[in-house]
Design brief:
single chain; 10 helices; two-stranded antiparallel ribbon; TIM Barrel; 8-stranded parallel beta sheet; alpha/beta
Length: 359
């Protein structure tokens, strides 16, 4: 037995048959056009990596104000649907399955980056105080507009519409982004959510919008097409979710409520609280995906082998190695990531990483 044997077993994810336990993790790459439409270059990028089986796309904004960064794709206009349709076709033609991640950036944004010049929105009018790249260079994220209770319902409707748009584009499902410092994660963090209505204050209230978004999307496209990503205690975007006790209370409640919806998977971006991860695994009725920063190749299968996860999504390894599945199967060397091209436009550092055959 090698340490990677556990990932070569087949797995049924909802109505999808996967031949192994690897997946492609969502990664922002900033290659869409100025209107958020994914073009041929993005289709080629995902086509190259389709052997990963389950492709979770970069975050796509569900509305103009949901856009955080320049040249991120949207999934709410007919043009977006047409662009993503080509991506879905490219993935399917090469044996993969596409889940589009729905990412509303919330306060981690700048008005110069979205197509309508709208001030970012958030649970409370508190700046993320993070630097955001804009057409004018680096800017500090502004103080966002605090969503009214009625406007929260509009956001939920935007997520629902985006999910329907993703399925219309031919995607196999969507991943709700409730992690990594973005809008839904902001509602979970007391230092970003200081509301006094039904969406703030208590553990239950802070989780409310996440649960309502998940309900709306699963009603719209089916629970078997709906996954969700969380990142307990991740401080990205200036968030502070409190001490270990507070974090566990928040996420054990959130996941126990989401579990009732029978969503197709829970995707945990894991920071290291293994006791919490084990608790969430016990609570969750369907598939669990676990990704960790800086994981070495010999540890890729560790969470699957330990029974903590069913699928192991790959980030930078997949980014730099379009044939990562073949490389792992054969023990071949891996390409290194070129950090200078992660968020730069064009094919360089995007679709020109060599395969084993090309090397």
């Amino acid at each position: 037995m090698t340490s990677l044997d556990a990932i070569w077993q087949p797995f049924t994810l909802g109505e999808i048959q996967l031949s192994h336990r690897l997946a492609m993790a969502p990664m922002t790459r900033n290659r869409a056009d100025s209107e958020g439409v994914p073009g041929d270059l993005i289709s080629e990028y995902y086509r190259q990596r389709a052997s990963l089986g389950l492709i979770i796309s970069e975050g796509a904004q569900p509305s103009a104000v949901g856009q955080g960064y320049m040249n991120t794709p949207g999934i709410y206009t007919p043009e977006h649907i047409a662009g993503w349709s080509k991506v879905a076709d490219a993935v399917h033609e090469n044996g993969g399955h596409l889940f589009i991640q729905l990412m509303h950036a919330g306060r981690l944004a700048h008005q110069d980056n979205n197509t309508e010049g709208q001030l970012p929105v958030a649970p409370s009018a508190i700046s993320a105080e993070q630097e955001i790249y804009t057409p004018n260079g680096k800017e500090i994220a502004p103080v966002p507009h605090e969503l009214s209770t009625a406007e929260i319902q509009d956001v939920i409707a935007e997520f629902r519409h985006a999910a329907a748009s993703a399925v219309a584009a031919g995607a196999d499902g969507v991943e709700i982004h409730s992690a990594n410092g973005y809008l839904l994660h902001q509602f979970l963090a007391p230092n970003a959510n200081q509301r006094t209505d039904e969406y703030g204050g208590s553990v239950e209230n802070r989780a409310r919008i996440v649960i309502e978004v998940a309900k709306a999307i699963s009603e719209e496209i089916g629970a078997h097409r709906t996954g969700i990503r969380i990142s307990p205690a991740f401080p990205l975007g200036g968030l502070d979710e409190g001490d270990v006790t507070a974090v566990r209370a928040q996420y054990e409640y959130l996941v126990s409520e989401l579990a009732k919806l029978n969503l197709v998977y829970l995707h945990v971006h894991h920071l290291g609280d293994d006791e919490l991860l084990a608790s969430l695994r016990q609570t969750w009725p369907t598939a669990v995906l676990v990704v960790r920063y800086g994981r070495e190749r010999e540890n890729i299968a560790a969470d699957v082998e330990a029974g903590l996860a069913d699928i192991a999504p790959l980030g930078r390894m997949a980014l730099a190695n379009p044939d990562i599945v073949e490389r792992l199967r054969t023990g071949a060397e891996l390409n290194d990531v070129d950090p200078a091209t992660l968020y730069a436009g064009g094919a360089h550092g995007y679709t020109d990483y060599p395969t084993l055959n090309q090397a």
